[in-house]
């Protein structure tokens, strides 16, 4: 059942994301969690991820659709492809001014899992595409 466990964990993660329940997302993480950000620094630890989620909640309202989750047989690696449907709420430092712009952005995430929990999240999207949509 490791593959099934990984698929369920990642599905729970995205269900929590779409519900705006960042605490439920954080509860799925290991103590040595790492968040590899698109074109950014690696954030280590659940507390850094909690800070990231608070920042994202202030600046963006996002809902993910067309989510497809895949996992290896061992349940130690997973990936997801999805579409981000968002609204840019508050200006994020170094990015264009927020004026409530909507955006639709394809994205993907890679995961490392251990004992049914998420140890690493690495998300990729096209930042230039996002800037063009909100700029």
UniProtKB/TrEMBL annotation:
Residues 11-120 form the SnoaL-like domain. InterPro entries: CHP02096, NTF2-like_dom_sf, SnoaL-like. Pfam families: SnoaL_2. NCBIfam families: ketosteroid isomerase-related protein. This is Isopropylmalate/homocitrate/citramalate synthase. The lineage of its organism: Bacteria, Pseudomonadati, Pseudomonadota, Alphaproteobacteria, Rhodobacterales.
